[in-house]
Write a structure and sequence with these properties.
By secondary structure, the chain is mainly beta. It is about 0% helix and about 40% strand. Keywords: Disulfide bond, Glycoprotein, Repeat, Sushi.
Amino acid sequence: MKRDGVGSVFYTCAQGYFQTGINLVSTCEGRSKGWSAVDIKCTLVDCGAPPTVFGAMSTGSRTTADAEVSYTCLAGSIPTSPVMTSTCVGQSGQWSPEPGPCTEVSCGPPPPVNAMDVELTTVSAEGAFPGLTNLSLPMAYGGEAVYTCQSQHGYTQPDGASYTSLCQADGTWRPTSEFQCTLVECGQPPPVDNSNVNFTAVTFGSKATVTCMPGFSPVETLTFTCNANATWEGPEVTCEMVKCAEPPVLENATVVYNSTDVAATAEYKCVEPALKEHEENSTTQCMENGKWSAVGLVCITIPCGLPPPVDHSQVSLYAVGDLIFADYVCNEGFVAQASQLFNRYVSYFSWSIGKERIGMRDKVELLLRFSLDAT
């Protein structure tokens, strides 16, 4: 209502109300000393239900003048209009502006990153943009991909670091160029007494070898591996001083030794009476591998005892197959008298004269043969 300064009043509806009627002025009449009638009606503006935006949900409950409704695109979509609000205009009773529809944005699978595993954050498709499913929604706009270093392959990420990429409005994943992983380090292998430890690297998968020093066991080289837990993995090992077992038994021989340590020796002697072969190789030695070296000595028992002595002669024994031979050689200045020898030793049933060989006066050989079937 407004006075014109003469005696008239103009009526207008307050903001938010519709104005109807044709007579909006009231005049002060002198005769009646009253105001003339006016024809005006003010009705509250109501824009009705706000417009529907495809793929969006709205917030706001009022529908009268100046009421405002905001629109938010459903998960996995973005707006196509720069303004996602609409206002009830009091003068027209209409909502303005009307936002355009939301549109789906898909980024596809997240990009791979070397030495990293990637996992999409699980999101329910309930209430999401129409057409998106539980499988496709995590790769749509706003989807989240979490990257972790492949610990199973020995990779780790810096302390406190977390790597996440988001599906952006332009259909691409947020850059992952700054994501980084490093190989686990195990540090130096643990020392082992009396051994040599060799290695060239201390990162995941690296190998370290442990070899006991000479004279210590085990003899074989042992291998350790740097694992994903940043520890060296391998057998428990201690290098113990090598000791041989008792010297092996040699048939028809005795053995004498003082120690079974490395480099210790043992000497074999044939049990008399015996025929000896390779007597020069009668000693064995404890080697660094914990075994005794080979012995060449062979002791062959003479069941009949030593061959009968012959005055003024030397005798040597040797074996051929199952037979043992005694070879007599007269001392210098003596000759063999075979008949006397035969008569003298005929009572030795285990020894028999095989043949006689008479040579120069100062050297005569007589060959006696042992018969295994003699008693």
